[in-house]
Design brief:
Blueprint lengths: L4 H23 L4 H11 L13 H22 L2 H6 L1 H25 L4 H11 L4 H11 L5 H30 L4 H32 L6 H21 L4 H12 L5 H25 L3 H6 L1 H25 L4 H10 L5 H13 L6 H33 L2 H12 L9 H38 L2 H25 L5 H9 L4 H26 L4 H17 L1 H28 L16 E6 L11 H4 L1 H5 L2 E7 L2 E4 L12 E6 L1 H13 L6 H6 L2 E7 L11 H4 L8 E6 L19 E7 H8 L2
Antiparallel strand pairs: 1-4, 2-3, 2-4, 5-7, 6-7
Helix pairs in contact: 1-2, 2-12, 3-11, 3-12, 5-6, 5-8, 5-14, 6-8, 6-16, 7-17, 8-9, 8-15, 8-16, 9-11, 9-19, 9-24, 10-11, 10-12, 14-15, 14-17, 15-17, 16-17, 19-20, 19-21, 20-22, 20-24, 22-23
Length: 749
């Protein structure tokens, strides 16, 4: 075991430093990430006054595991359905920020004369804001219930998924060590191909597996199985040339759609916190004070670029999306920092040996400075928007106001557009599944048959089996949406629509024919005309087959049930927000959730007694109580501990209500707990006792003294349960239970 000693000693040093620094930074109300970075600096060889880590290679391996766990946990919090729900505002803002900041970062690096890969990686590092730091800042400043905070979090969701894409692109460029447009497009195409494939296949198989194994799943087995799936996907991603962190994120996002997601997230959190701490400590170990002093000017410049660039492009992106100037500036000023993904991208560059040694400490220094400035930038948003209102030209303000009102009008979406988008989604998804099945069959099935059967029979059997495997998906490509409302409406609406619809249908059939032709032609040497005829015949049989139709519908139904399982659970438990939450007419009106504390003075009172509308201007639209949802509660509804209130109001009203909720919490003194302590004592009935000859009912021990007689012991009998009409006799011993003061009051009576 001597070979483990250095690693154990290093881990002990890291965790002790991290523990001390986290306590200190918690006391200072600063993000824990900064505490980890400082701990890493103290434990690094760059700090001569403190003990240093000896074996940095092993610590780096643990740090890589930490990245995997961080991305896995991020995937568990992520949902592909969230991209649809964030809305156009977040999409426009996120894309504006990321692309603009990448260009700015590359330009800054080129101005300093850095090499190409340093400039590209710098652009990627400063493009992503820190989700952890922003969450912490909103909680500390009490802004998490305001409308702009929800928009910022939506932008962060998109930045997280785009960061994953960016990591893959940077990995591709790092391997080739140059920027090639065609190669980049191929890499992006490969990325999205495997992303869709893994998501579709994973979402079909993983929830089914967990559902069937649910009775065997304890917390221990759930943790082991989920981590096994995570690292299995990590190995698979690395095998196909992607980042291991990418595989962890994909598996996390697949598990996020299952019913067990919350349980897995809770179980994984301690493990993620441990390895995540080691990762951030390893980030701090890369900080070299001499190098920071040497590159002080680039650090200052990049810090200013991050603060000014994120605030400007963030504000501009939200304005482009049609939001008012105040909300736009609040969003932009909240995003002025870099954090986790900057470190992950920096470590990626170090691992691939494509970035210079000075870039990592520079990014860490910039992250620390911008993190400290984040609360001040958020507070500055309000005064900055007021200043802009006063000093911007009236024409500009009028244009911004008109532009912000424009998205409120309802736009009729073209039926053609709906149908085309739906068909493209079907064709792309099912085509990817077919390609994957064909590729796997040619990789494993065909060689197996060729080695065990004559070539001709092996080829024919392989072709038949592969076509059977892909037939449900080919049928879906040809038939799906043919009986939809959009298709029928367009067909009946005008005769001019029928020719394009028939052309689309023919194109779908020919796509299926092409798949079948490729399979046959790759295995059996026959003429092109014969291959086409056989393929066309097989496709017609697929369309007419009732068994295949049933099988195809069953596959699709299982997939969508798995996709909606968590959403259906939320509806059942009353956790889903109402559909109108994002469609409020007033720009400032929004819904926020509040949980009622056990110690709140509001507990036990009705909504009529509390008069939230008159006092704070807000209205309770729903109450979540356990597994129940009380919609539009009346004035007579009472509040209970841990009730979750869904409240509608403006930002100002929400702030006022939130402060009132905090102030109404009464902290119980420790003395009260001692006074309420329950004790057991004996009470002897003698000739002087006031209870002699009385029954328990007449004695009033429960009513007057609030005590319970647990048993009565006679001289000649053992302890027995008393009856209400049993008289108390001389020599009886009563076993009395109650609060301390009540019991002693009874004994002294």
């Amino acid at each position: 075991m001597s070979h483990l000693a250095p690693l154990i000693a290093d881990l002990a040093l890291i965790l002790i430093c991290a523990g001390i620094m986290t306590l200190l930074f918690k006391k200072l109300k600063q993000p824990l990430v900064l505490g980890y970075i400082v701990a890493g600096f103290l434990a690094s060889p760059h700090m001569p006054y403190t003990p240093s880590v000896g074996d940095t290679a092993n610590i780096q391996t643990w740090a890589d595991i930490g990245v995997i766990f961080l991305l896995f946990a991020l995937g568990l919090e992520f949902s592909f359905k969230k991209i649809v729900k964030v809305g156009a505002t977040a999409i426009i803002a996120a894309l504006t920020i990321i692309f603009s900041m990448i260009i700015v970062g590359i330009s800054v690096g080129m101005c300093f004369g850095w090499k190409q890969m340093d400039c590209i990686f710098l652009g990627g590092m400063i493009a992503m804001s820190s989700t952890t730091i922003i969450y912490k800042a909103f909680d500390d400043l009490g802004l998490s219930k305001q409308k702009f905070a929800g928009l910022v979090l939506s932008v962060l969701i998109l930045e997280d998924i785009l960061a994953i894409v960016l990591m893959v692109m940077l990995s591709t460029m790092a391997v080739s060590n140059h920027f090639e447009g065609t190669e980049m497009l191929v890499s992006i195409g490969k990325l999205f191909f495997f992303l869709i494939l893994w998501f579709v296949v994973g979402l079909y198989l993983v929830p089914v597996f967990l559902k069937r194994m649910r009775k065997l799943m304890s917390e221990e087995t759930m943790l082991i199985v989920s981590l096994g799936l995570c690292f299995g996907m990590v190995v698979m991603a690395a095998h196909f040339g992607f980042s291991p962190a990418f595989g962890a994120f994909i598996m996390g996002s697949i598990l996020a759609e299952t019913i067990e997601a919350e349980s897995i997230e809770r179980l994984v959190k301690p493990v993620k916190d441990l390895f995540g701490a080691i990762f951030f400590v390893s980030v701090g170990m890369m900080v070299d004070p001499t190098m920071i002093a040497e590159y002080a000017i680039p650090i200052i410049v990049i810090t200013l670029v991050v603060i000014l660039g994120q605030s400007f492009f963030g504000t501009l992106g939200v304005l482009f999306a049609g939001q008012p100037l105040k909300i736009a500036m609040q969003c932009g000023f909240s995003l002025t920092q870099i954090g986790e993904f900057a470190f992950i991208i920096a470590s990626l560059g170090v691992t691939l040996h494509v970035t210079s040694h000075f870039l990592y400490p520079i990014v860490v220094a910039v992250s620390v400075i911008t993190t400290f400035l984040t609360p001040y930038m958020i507070r500055l948003a309000g005064p900055a928007s007021e200043y802009a209102d006063k000093h911007l030209p009236q024409k500009w303000m009028a244009f911004i106001s008109r532009y912000a009102l424009a998205p409120q009008s309802l736009n009729h979406e073209s039926i053609w557009r709906k149908l085309i988008i739906a068909l493209l989604r079907i064709i792309i998804v099912y085509s990817i599944v077919c390609i994957a099945i064909i590729a796997l069959s040619f990789r494993f099935l065909v060689p197996l048959l060729m080695n065990n059967l004559p070539e001709l029979w092996a080829s024919i059997l392989a072709a038949v089996l592969i076509i059977l495997f892909v037939s449900p998906f080919l049928r879906a490509i040809m038939i799906k949406k043919n009986h939809s409302n959009e298709f029928i409406t367009l067909w009946r609406e005008s005769k001019n629509n029928r020719a394009p619809l028939v052309a689309i249908q023919i194109a779908r059939v020919m796509l299926a024919v092409s798949f079948v032709m490729f399979i046959i032609a790759s295995l059996v040497k026959v003429s092109v005309g014969l291959v086409f005829g056989i393929a066309l015949l097989l496709v017609i049989l697929m369309v007419m087959s009732r068994m295949l139709k049933k099988h195809s519908i069953m596959i699709e139904r299982t997939f969508f049930q798995n996709l909606r399982s968590r959403e259906m659970q939320a509806e059942y438990l009353g956790k889903k927000k109402p559909a109108y939450a994002g469609r409020l007419l007033s720009k400032d009106m929004h819904i926020a959730d509040y949980e009622l504390s056990n110690e709140s003075d509001w507990v036990g009172k009705t909504l009529g007694e509390l008069s939230f509308g008159q006092r704070y201007g807000v209205h309770v639209v729903s109450i979540l109580r356990g597994n129940r949802r009380i919609n539009i509660p009346g004035a007579n509804v009472r509040l209970f501990p841990t009730d979750k209130l869904q409240v509608i109001g403006t930002d100002e009203q929400q702030i006022l209500f939130g402060e009132a909720m905090k102030q109404c919490v009464t902290i119980v003194d420790a003395d009260e707990f001692e006074k309420g302590e329950m004790i057991l004592r004996q009470l002897l009935i003698d000739e002087n006792s006031p209870f002699l000859g009385k029954t328990l009912k007449d004695a009033g021990i429960r009513q007057k003294y609030h005590c319970l007689v647990a048993g009565i012991e006679h001289d000649d009998e053992s302890l027995h349960d008393p009856t209400p009409n049993e008289p108390l006799m001389n020599g009886d011993v009563l076993w009395v239970v109650g609060e301390t003061k009540d019991v002693f009051s009874l004994i002294n009576a």
